[in-house]
Design brief:
Layout (H helix, E strand, L loop, with lengths): L1 H16 L1 H30 L10 E7 L10 H10 L3 E9 L2 E4 L5 E3 L1 E4 L3 H5 L5 E2 L14 E4 L1 H8 L9 E4 L2 E8 L13 E4 L15 E6 L5 H18 L1 H4 L3 E6 H4 L3 H35 L1 H9 L4 H37 L15 H26 L4 H7 L8 H36 L10 E6 L9 H16 L4 E7 L9 E4 L1 E2 L12 E7 L3 H5 L3 E4 L13 E5 H7 L9 E7 L6 E13 L14 E5 L8 E7 L7 H11 L6 E5 H8 L1 H35 L1 H9 L4 H30 L15 H27 L3 H5 L3
Parallel strand pairs: 5-10, 7-9, 17-22, 19-21
Antiparallel strand pairs: 1-11, 1-12, 2-5, 2-11, 3-4, 3-8, 6-9, 7-10, 8-9, 13-23, 13-24, 14-23, 15-17, 16-20, 18-21, 19-22, 20-21
Helix pairs in contact: 1-11, 2-9, 2-11, 2-12, 3-6, 9-12, 9-14, 9-20, 10-13, 11-12, 14-20, 14-22, 14-23, 15-18, 20-22, 20-23, 22-23
């Protein structure tokens, strides 16, 4: 310990005497360690931490398994059979959406909500901070008018009033009693839902062919996942045998909740970001190792004196390593500050609800421990080679190599060259990854979406079947709203739709084409089923390819008609004209979770493909019908204007509230914002990797510049001799450039091979570009080559200006 304290004091003195070197080293490490700390905070929160529940390993997600495999929602009767017949779960609970309009205190507010079975909170081990959660019998009709508030909603909407428990509030025009408030700072504070109500099944919910829920379960103590799956497979097989019309070859999918809350793409993305910042730190370490080796060469006389006074080789290595670790710890402390700032920036930049509610990204003790561990490891990593080189026992040879020789020591030169080659290779891999993501993002943004986003504003118009039970009155309400909105100055077109572009299918409906071989209901293919007003295509600028569009004459009681997209034609009408064909789809009963009789929708037109899911969904097959022939609660309004659409926000609200003062409006956005939000995660990922790659390229350029500059300095005497013997400035320039570009070429070759391997892992993150895209590889090689050339050119030009007389006297 005494020797360690001596080394620390001496290290502090040497760093104080070299403030430039110390500042560069500490800042380089602070950036590298800070970036690693920030990204590790996400890796730890998303992938490494256990779920923040009392029994995380026993929580299961239970869904239906279609005949082709995978996962699907659950029908109410199937869920009730599962809950009744299983003996492996301590609790089982269903969940579905439950957005609700809160009124009675000014303008109505649409709250994000969920309806859940009573044991839902028991499965996750959540207790109310005030009041209680649901009682076991509150999923029965007549007892379900109770609600549990999220803590954030309680504070923002109700002022944190503890007397809220027991009070009546108006939701969708119906009185509900608040029975509890969830605790602050917990998992459910980050949940999408703000309010929870009991899921009470009405007679119209009790079907097997409408899949509209998910479910969770808690394994009984001692029950294994294999036992649970075996029993649920048996229950599923029994249901399939009893109800083949809806359940033939359908099964049950039981998965640990911990395994499915993080999707494959998110998992791969965070690991790629972690690898990227790791490479940046390694490149920084290589640079610092080169600096330390150059610094060690200048201290050879000091080392010789220490050795002559009896210092052992290990004692000398310890001194140099202590200095390296001291630098890295200082860089790590500053890096924690940088990491916290970067983490907060990333959290702010992430799209809302892009991370599961279980993920709480923060700089906690685990992340701090990682930061300090990587600081010490970094110090050892970049300090070990210089320490060993400086403490070689052949001191006389070292002194000779450090003198007037024309070249620096061979071993030292090879190590420094190898570090530069490694830097170039890692920079090549990072730049290739960033380039591929950039080209992928550009390809995504150039996708022909099928609709025009210019000057279009959208907003949700939620309506409840409790408030307006008659579907005909719902359509009348939407007609009144459209008429009032279209009368506003500046409005060109307006329409309603069951789901906005790029925000999902809405409904995915099994179908049968009339006249083709009959397929049983459980095995039919599915397409998206979109309910719109006839003006939808004109409002969004969707082009008609064949036939006609939907019209105001396509009303209730008339022949059911549909317009299909080109993907539907390509996939299911390859050799025939779709116009006049009939597509059999069961009726969606408005406001209910049940299907009616099959409706023969006659195809009257074909439109261009509209991207309904995301910009990289590849185009989904689908059909469009009018809301008059298939009424729908909870439509969205889209309005095309002749000006900046956001300037009409106030006018649109006023016009809609003239029709219904209690009509809530949600998610008021332009269609351009909807498009931008659909690619927000891809944009952030591309920018991050681009920033890391740029940092890597800069560090690699600094590294190659440092090596060449140091080599020129060491070879000043040699340069003077060459100049005195008649070597021209061009010859000297070529000599230096050749040695530098040889290192760059070796790094580019190694990086090219590495990128061929690494970019294969990114294939699922790319759109419209190959992981081995030749243009990207060539561009990266050319860019790095140019950067390396400039880094070599500066010291090379300096070498050509050496005065031979001065150089020949150089020591």
């Amino acid at each position: 310990m005494n020797a360690l304290f001596q080394d620390l004091r001496y290290g502090l003195r040497t760093l104080r005497n070299s403030p430039g070197f110390a500042a560069v080293a500490v800042l380089t490490l602070a950036i590298g360690i800070g970036a690693n700390t920030a990204i590790f905070s996400f890796v730890d929160a998303i992938l490494l931490k256990p779920l923040p529940y009392a029994n995380p390993d026993r929580i299961m997600r239970v869904l239906e398994k279609p005949p082709g495999g995978g996962r699907n929602g659950i029908s109410a009767l199937n869920y009730l059979d599962w809950a009744k017949q299983n003996t492996v779960f301590q609790y089982m609970a269903a969940q579905t959406g439950g957005g609700v309009s809160f009124s009675g205190s000014g303008e109505p507010v649409q709250l994000r909500g969920a309806r859940v079975s009573p044991h839902y909170f028991d499965i996750f081990g959540i207790k109310a901070a005030i009041g209680r959660t649901f009682a076991p019998d509150e999923d029965q009709l007549g007892k379900e008018r109770v609600a549990v508030l999220g803590h954030v909603l309680w504070e923002t909407q109700f002022g944190g009033d503890p007397a809220i428990v027991g009070r009546k509030i108006v939701l969708d025009g119906q009185p509900y009693q608040v029975i509890g408030v969830l605790p602050a700072g917990g998992v459910f504070d980050r949940a999408y839902s703000q309010i929870w109500r009991p899921l009470a099944f009405e007679p119209g919910n009790l079907t097997r062919d409408f899949h509209w829920m998910s479910s969770f379960a808690l394994l009984k103590p001692g029950i294994t996942l294999q036992q649970a799956r075996a029993q649920m497979d048996g229950i599923g097989a029994q249901i399939a045998a009893q109800y083949p019309a809806s359940n033939k070859e359908w099964g049950v999918n039981v998965e640990p909740f911990a395994d499915i809350i993080v999707g494959t793409q998110l998992r791969r993305s965070v690991w790629i970001m972690m690898a990227a910042v790791g490479m940046v730190l390694l490149i920084g370490c290589a640079n610092l190792a080169n600096l330390m080796m150059a610094r060690a060469a200048s201290r050879e006389r000091e080392v010789a004196v220490r050795a002559s006074l009896g210092a052992s080789r290990w004692r000398l290595i310890q001194q140099f390593l202590t200095e390296s670790v001291l630098i890295s710890v200082c860089g790590g402390i500053l890096g924690i500050v940088v990491g916290y700032a970067v983490m907060e920036l990333l959290r702010f930049a992430l799209p809302p609800y892009s991370l599961p509610r279980e993920v709480n990204v923060t700089i906690d003790s685990r992340v701090l421990l990682f930061a300090m561990a990587i600081s010490v490891l970094t110090g050892i990593l970049f300090g070990l080679a210089p320490a060993i080189q400086a403490a070689r026992p052949q001191l006389a040879a070292s002194m000779k190599e450090g003198g007037r020789g024309s070249t620096i020591g061979g071993a030292r030169r090879r190590i420094r060259s190898a570090l530069v080659v490694l830097e170039m290779a890692m920079a090549f891999v990072l730049l290739t990854g960033a380039g591929l993501l950039l080209r992928s993002f550009q390809a995504m943004m150039k996708v022909e979406t099928g609709f025009d986003t210019n000057n279009v504003i959208s907003m949700g118009l939620p309506l409840s079947e409790k408030k307006i039970p008659d579907p005909a009155r719902v359509n009348m309400r939407y007609r009144e709203i459209l008429a009032r909105v279209e009368s506003l100055p500046g409005v060109r077109d307006a329409a309603v739709t069951s789901v906005l572009p790029l925000e999902g299918w809405g409904y995915g409906m099994p179908f049968q084409i009339a006249g083709q071989p009959l397929v049983d209901m459980a095995h039919r293919p599915a397409c998206f089923f979109k309910i719109v007003s006839p003006e939808y295509f004109q409002t969004l600028g969707i082009k008609l390819r064949r036939g006609r569009g939907l019209s105001d004459q396509d009303t209730h009681g008339g022949p059911p008609v549909t317009v299909i997209n080109e993907n539907m034609v390509k996939r299911f009408f390859k050799q025939q004209d779709p116009i006049g064909q009939r597509i059999m789809i069961q009726e969606i009963v408005p406001g209910k979770t049940q299907l009616g009789p099959e409706v023969p929708w006659q195809v009257v037109g074909v439109i261009a493909n509209e991207y309904v899911d995301s910009l990289n969904d590849g185009g989904s097959p689908g059909i469009y019908v009018t809301n008059e022939q298939s009424p729908q609660y909870g439509m969205s309004l889209v309005v095309r204007t002749g000006m900046d659409p956001l300037t009409l926000d106030h006018g649109l609200r006023a016009a809609i509230h003239e029709v219904d003062p209690e009509q809530p409006l949600t998610d008021v956005r332009t269609l351009e914002q909807v498009k931008s939000e659909s690619v927000a995660s891809d944009k952030l990922q591309t920018r991050l990797l681009g920033i890391f790659a740029a940092a890597a390229m800069l560090l690699a350029a600094i590294g190659i510049y440092g090596v060449i500059a140091y080599a020129v300095l060491q070879r000043t005497h040699e340069m003077g001799i060459r100049a005195a013997l008649g070597a021209s400035a061009g010859n000297l320039l070529r000599l230096v450039l050749t040695s530098g570009m040889a290192l760059a070429a070796a790094g580019l070759a190694l990086g090219f091979l590495g990128s061929l391997v690494v970019t294969r892992l990114m294939s699922n993150l790319l759109f419209g570009v190959s992981p081995r895209d030749p243009a990207t590889l060539a561009l990266v090689a050319a860019l790095l080559g140019c950067v390396a050339f400039i880094a070599c050119l500066i010291p090379a030009r300096r070498a050509t200006k050496v005065d031979p007389v001065v150089a020949l006297r150089y020591e």
